[in-house]
Write a structure and sequence with these properties.
The chain is α/β, with parallel strands linked by helices. The chain is built from 27 helices and 20 strands.
Length: 752
């Protein structure tokens, strides 16, 4: 009877798993089948053994048949259900079955620092010719099982991602590879210090140049939460995992415009799951992952030791590949050939080679180069580029010539200029009238060749101007369309501060959309900034040939895209241009709210990366002005998500080259861009009345079950939390930006 009881328990688990996969009891009458098992368990001591085993065999055959049928045609929504099943393997199972030994770091159990993120120092071994060779690795990942009640479903809090970053740096110091395991539906959306968005941005920024091999494995990858530990040299994914910009339920709520509290139609959720292209096969085709790790047809579970053996092999193989690519391509090709030959007979028991995972300094440089190239190439070809091959070729030639020119002018010659000027200044400081007469012509010659930007002053060229007005006569030609309505509006703070009603032509004219009593900033169109912030006639747009498309064929999105193009006259939500502030040249990337709410997709990411490169080559400061951003564009799936590490990689390289990167937020700025290439800037400012954060109030409420105060995302609170470094008044935007350009940044800028 003991064996029959065990068999019945196993059958009950298999049926429960099918119920999880199919999303309910209705499919093939699974509820009745489960009742039959429960009935046998109740009557186990009243029936003879032969009858019980006969019934067990009958039910087992039926369950096996249903499992085969279910596996034949899994929908994307059902794959999501597989990942969410309580029987799915977790990071704890991997640590126990893939690695030989491990020591958890950062605390244990209830004493852990955010138990949704687990870090362990582990040993993984390979066998070669009956000998065992061990490697030390750092394991960092999400844990959603083994104490589910306090692990928060694998949703990392900001301090959990901070813990991950701390041990990434430990691994870098010790020179050991990192294995990341992604099991999260998304990060916990709170702004408590260090803040969800800010910490994700810090993690991605650090991983871009982390000097150690990194391999990641994705089981459940939810947008920004996945990217916090997702940037790696090789990205593996379980064949029954999912990686998505948003959950199918979240996409359904947006697409169906479902009000909060209303039930989501199951058909709409399934439709959105299919549209998001979130499966492993979809992501491999899109190039957002490198390889698929095969699982059983209905997914691997906690006791699937064959899968764990395969995963161990794939992790060692991937780490070997990362290391070998930094050495010799010939060695890598030979290794890859050996692997392919061995795989013909399944997962090899032994390896033909033992690879030393230590890297020399030149190999580390090669590692970083390959990582940069990998992420810069992601999502290429999934945006429109309206140019012929000859024009593109001329553009590349021009870029190469520009790079050489600026390298010579501001690299080679500028360094010599500084040395000569330093000698001149040191000699001149002795006060010798004779030497001053000798050095003055030399100084004048250098200043003629390398002119310094003119600085505005109180009475001429002598000192910095106290206030650079944005109301100069040269801008009077542009009037905001909002100023054409002959009516009054009330300030939203009138009850608190006693603000008087404002006449619209004044409010959007001389008041710049700012209440003169309390300083509340009414939203202004993006063109107002183009006309008033920069020197007149200095704005020269580039990258206009890169346009947003519908790369996933998301149903209904093409028509919405075309409407936005027709309405705005623009073809993406990002504008990149050269401009001047008081004659200082800078490169600007602007996300504006009129086009798809300022969301970022493949086109916007590519434009941003090219603008970043332009600023780096020309040694100009780089400004990201965020008129509005609603996050990553869900209609582009993981092609949108991958812009987070891709753009951050470009920013990191620009900053490391000595550039000055400034971010200014306005209106509503949320989600993926803030949690990556915007949030990683050392200089972040917000226009007063800005709302800034990781997730909006509704998402926070639905995720945490808690309401947030009305001012939770205010610029004032963002400043208190350390998210931004200052709050700017719109009327002083130009003045503050000019002063920032003159006082911030290192000597690598062309005008320093």
């Amino acid at each position: 009877m003991k064996d029959s009881s065990k068999l019945l328990s196993q059958l009950a688990e298999r049926i429960a798993y099918l119920i999880d996969v199919k999303g309910g009891l209705a499919w093939k009458d699974l509820g009745a089948l489960l009742d039959d098992v429960q009935s046998l368990r109740r009557d186990i001591y009243e029936l003879d053994e032969a009858s019980i085993f006969a019934e067990i065999d009958k039910i087992r055959d039926r369950v096996s048949s249903l499992e085969r049928e279910a596996a034949e045609s899994l929908s994307p929504a059902e794959i999501v259900n597989i990942v969410r099943s309580s029987q799915r393997f977790t990071l704890s199972d991997i640590l126990e079955n893939v690695y030989d030994s491990f020591t958890e770091l950062g605390g244990d159990g209830e004493c852990n620092v955010d138990p949704a993120v687990v870090v362990a120092r582990a040993t993984i071994s390979r066998r070669m010719k009956n000998k065992t060779y061990s490697h030390q690795v750092m394991v960092i990942g999400h844990e959603k099982g083994r104490g589910e009640e306090y692990r928060n479903g694998g949703c990392a809090r900001p301090w959990g991602n901070a813990k991950a970053l701390r041990y990434m740096k430990v691994a870098e110091t010790e020179g050991i590879p990192i294995h990341f395991f992604i099991f999260t539906p998304g990060s916990f959306p709170i702004e408590d210090y260090p803040g969800a968005a800010q910490q994700i941005a810090r993690n991605i920024y650090a991983m871009a140049r982390l000097k150690t091999p990194m391999v990641s494995f994705i089981s459940e990858g939810g947008s920004g939460g996945a990217e916090a530990i997702g940037l790696s040299d090789i990205r593996l994914m379980g064949s029954r995992g999912y990686y998505s910009v948003i959950s199918p339920e979240g996409a359904a709520a947006i697409e169906g415009k479902i009000r909060e509290g209303e039930k989501l139609p199951k058909e709409l959720v399934e439709h959105c799951a299919a549209q998001l292209k979130l499966t492993a096969q979809d992501n491999l085709r899109l190039g957002t992952i490198d390889r698929i790790v095969e699982e059983p047809p209905l997914g691997a579970r906690r006791d699937d030791y064959v899968f764990f053996r395969r995963l161990r092999y794939e992790l060692i193989r991937a780490t070997d590949e990362v290391v070998l690519k930094t050495k010799s391509f010939r060695a890598f090709r030979a290794y890859a050939l050996n692997i392919r030959n061995a795989e013909k007979e399944g997962v090899p028991e032994d390896f033909d080679l033992v690879i030393n995972w230590d890297l020399t300094e030149p190999e580390i440089e090669r590692l970083l180069e390959l990582r940069s190239k990998k992420y810069r190439e992601m999502a290429k070809g999934f945006y429109g580029e309206e140019a012929t091959s000859s024009i593109l070729g001329l553009g590349k030639a021009k870029d190469l010539a520009s790079q050489s020119y600026y390298e010579i002018r501001y690299g080679l010659l500028r360094s010599h200029q500084r040395n000569v000027m330093k000698v001149i200044e040191e000699v001149s400081s002795e006060g010798s009238v004779l030497l001053n007469k000798v050095t003055r012509p030399v100084r004048a010659a250098y200043e003629f060749v390398f002119p310094r930007p003119e600085r505005a002053s109180k009475g001429g060229r002598g000192g910095m101007q106290e206030h650079v007005s944005i109301f100069a006569e040269e801008w009077e030609a542009y009037v905001s369309p909002l100023a054409n309505e002959d009516r009054t509006v009330s300030c939203p703070n009138a009850s608190k501060y006693g603000c008087l009603d404002l006449w619209v032509p004044d409010l959007y004219g001389e008041f710049c959309g700012v209440c003169p009593t309390c300083g509340h900033h009414f939203p202004l169109e993006y063109r107002w900034y183009l006309e008033h912030l920069f020197d007149k006639g200095s704005v020269e747009e580039f990258n206009t040939n890169i346009v947003s498309i519908n790369p996933l064929g998301f149903e209904g999105f093409q028509s919405r895209l075309e409407k936005d193009i027709k309405r705005t006259g623009r073809r993406s939500s990002m504008i990149t241009f050269d401009a001047k502030i008081q004659n200082i040249k800078l490169v600007v990337a602007m996300l504006f709210g009129d086009f798809r709410n300022g969301t970022v997709g493949a086109a916007e990411g590519e434009k941003f990366v090219r603008a970043c490169d332009r600023a780096r080559i020309t040694r100009r400061p780089f400004l990201s002005y965020i008129h509005t951003t609603g996050g990553i564009r869900i209609h582009e799936g993981t092609l949108g998500v991958i812009q987070m590490p891709k753009c951050t990689m470009a920013v990191r390289e620009y900053i490391d080259s000595g550039g000055l990167y400034i971010v200014v937020y306005d209106n509503n700025s949320y989600a993926g861009p803030v949690a990556s290439f915007l949030g990683c800037s050392p200089y972040q400012f917000a226009i007063r009345s800005t709302r800034i954060g990781f997730a909006g109030p509704r998402v926070i409420r639905e995720t945490t079950g808690e309401d947030v105060p009305p001012d939770y995302h205010s610029s004032k609170n963002a400043l208190k939390r350390g998210h931004i470094q200052g709050i700017w008044d719109r009327r002083e935007f130009r003045k503050n930006l000019y002063e920032a350009l003159m006082t911030m940044g290192g000597p690598n800028l062309y005008y320093k």
